[in-house]
Design brief:
By secondary structure, the chain is an alpha/beta fold. Helix content is 36%, strand content 29%. It contains eight helices and ten strands. It has helices at residues 9-17, 51-65, 124-135, 137-140, 143-148, 171-180, 191-201, 223-242, and strands at residues 2-6, 20-27, 30-37, 40-46, 69-78, 88-96, 118-119, 156-163, 184-188, 205-213. Helix 6 (171-180) links the parallel strand 8 (156-163) and strand 9 (184-188). Helix 1 (9-17) packs across helix 8 (223-242). The chain is globular, with a radius of gyration of 17 Å. It binds adenine (ADE). The site of adenine has 12 residues, from strand 5, strand 9 and strand 10. Adenine binds at residues 75-77, 167-169, 187-189, 212-213, 215.
């Protein structure tokens, strides 16, 4: 069974519409939906925002449903200045940008785990599904919606994703994170917590993030509309292909 997590219900709404034989399990104030997506058994859940919410959801998901792999999909703020709204980051490793137990442990290192970066399992099929989605973009996304968010030719970038319990929207926070983490692509609030739980339980983990904003004080996009009309269609397009 494949576990699929997003932070918001809207990010998974399109995927839930095509889930067959759907059953709902309510555990720890979360709804876990099991069923068949194309050829694969999946369990889908939205974690809510932040590292604690993401960690508790992932732990419950693993202990109740014993997934063989977990995929996180959702939106993120760009740190790499070359990234634009609608671009896709295929995560290669994750770091908790707000972890700092110095001087007892190096800044960013997870105390007693001895790790700073959690590597994902780089899976060709998921990357191929991301590429297929990008190459056939306008079969998945309506032109009019893309124009609304000024998306013209979305790119795919592989790289580091940072997570922390802060929505980054000031230049000061942006610069601090950028300076502390070389080669960082984007920032969000859950991925590295899910990655840590997967690391501790030895479950293969993968992540895709769609750029929704520039993580600074430039004008924010209409976040609810972006997740509903754009991000959830990315999740459906990419994961349906992955599961077929
Ligand atoms: N998720 C999407 N945009 C984000 C941002 N700017 N900061 C943190 N998480 C995000």
């Amino acid at each position: 069974m494949i576990g699929i997590i997003s932070a918001m219900h809207d990010e998974l709404a399109e995927l839930l519409l095509v889930l067959k034989d759907k059953e709902t399990f309510i555990l720890g104030n979360r709804e876990y939906y099991t069923g068949t997506l194309k050829q694969k058994q999946v369990v889908i859940v939205f974690s809510k925002w932040g590292k604690v919410a993401a960690a508790l959801t992932t732990t419950q998901l693993i202990s109740t449903f014993q997934p063989t792999e977990i995929i996180f999909t959702g939106v993120a703020g760009a740190i790499n200045p070359n990234l634009n709204i609608g671009d896709i980051v295929y995560g290669t490793s994750l770091v908790q940008h707000d972890m700092d137990a110095s001087p007892l442990f190096p800044t960013l290192e997870i105390p007693l785990l001895g790790k700073t970066y959690f590597k994902t399992i780089l899976n060709t099929k998921l990357f191929d599904s991301v590429n297929y989605f990008q190459q056939n973009y306008f079969t998945f996304i309506q032109k009019k919606e893309a124009i609304t968010f000024k998306i013209t030719a979305p790119k795919i970038t592989k790289g580091i994703i940072a997570s922390g319990d802060e929505f980054i929207s000031t230049d000061q926070s942006f610069q601090k994170i950028k300076k502390n983490i070389p080669n960082l692509q984007c920032v969000e609030m859950e991925g590295a917590a899910v990655a840590q739980v997967c690391d501790e339980y030895k479950i293969p983990f993968q992540i895709i993030r769609i750029i929704s904003d520039k993580a600074n004080d430039s004008a924010p996009v209409d976040f609810p509309a972006f997740t509903k009309k754009i991000a959830s269609k990315y999740a459906k397009g990419i994961l349906e292909n992955y599961c077929s």
